[in-house]
Automatic annotation (TrEMBL):
Organism the protein comes from: Pisum sativum
Boundaries of every Root UVB sensitive protein C-terminal domain copy: 2-133
Coiled-coil regions listed: none
Highest taxon above the source species: Eukaryota
Protein's name in the database: Variant 5, Protein root UVB sensitive 5
InterPro entries referenced in this protein's UniProt entry, alphabetically: RUS_fam, UVB_sens_C
Length: 145
């Protein structure tokens, strides 16, 4: 089959669901209100993670943004992907965004270890995960809360 190479009809990223944008600084995320109060709450919510995930619920398709903190690892990237997929499968369009993020973090805590065990039982070497953390680390983990 031949196709015009100039047309982006088969660009892989168009088929990737959910849409995840990694390494995006908080100030560039086209999400809900970016008030000081919201940012402070997100920092508190993600205090135990090496990333912050937010979602733009106003589009037809959900769009997720992940900012990584200093010290993020491949496991941090995998955790953010797991949380994103859980959210995309369980998203309630009428629900409160912050509450849904909080609920997804509880699910992550409850179920991520089981996910890792399933990877291991499928012969994945979880010590050799090679998920690159974007170089644009935008959040320095400040424990001021």
């Amino acid at each position: 089959m031949e196709c015009n190479k100039e047309e982006n009809i088969l660009v892989w990223s168009q088929f990737m669901k959910p849409k995840i944008i990694f390494g995006s600084p908080l100030e560039k995320m086209d999400v809900m209100d970016r008030s000081h109060f919201l940012v402070e709450n997100l920092l508190k919510l993600y205090a135990n993670e090496k990333y912050i995930l937010v979602v733009n619920p106003q589009l037809d398709d959900l769009k997720f943004y992940v900012s990584f903190k200093v010290g993020a690892t491949s496991l941090s990237v995998l955790r953010s992907i797991w949380q994103t997929f859980w959210l995309s499968e369980n998203w309630e369009s009428k629900g409160n965004v912050y509450d849904q993020l909080a609920n997804s973090l509880m699910e992550l805590e409850d179920r991520f270890d089981d996910f890792i065990q399933k990877l291991k039982s499928s012969k994945w070497d979880t010590q050799q995960l090679n998920l690159k953390v974007p170089k644009e680390i935008s959040i320095d983990d400040i424990n001021t809360f």
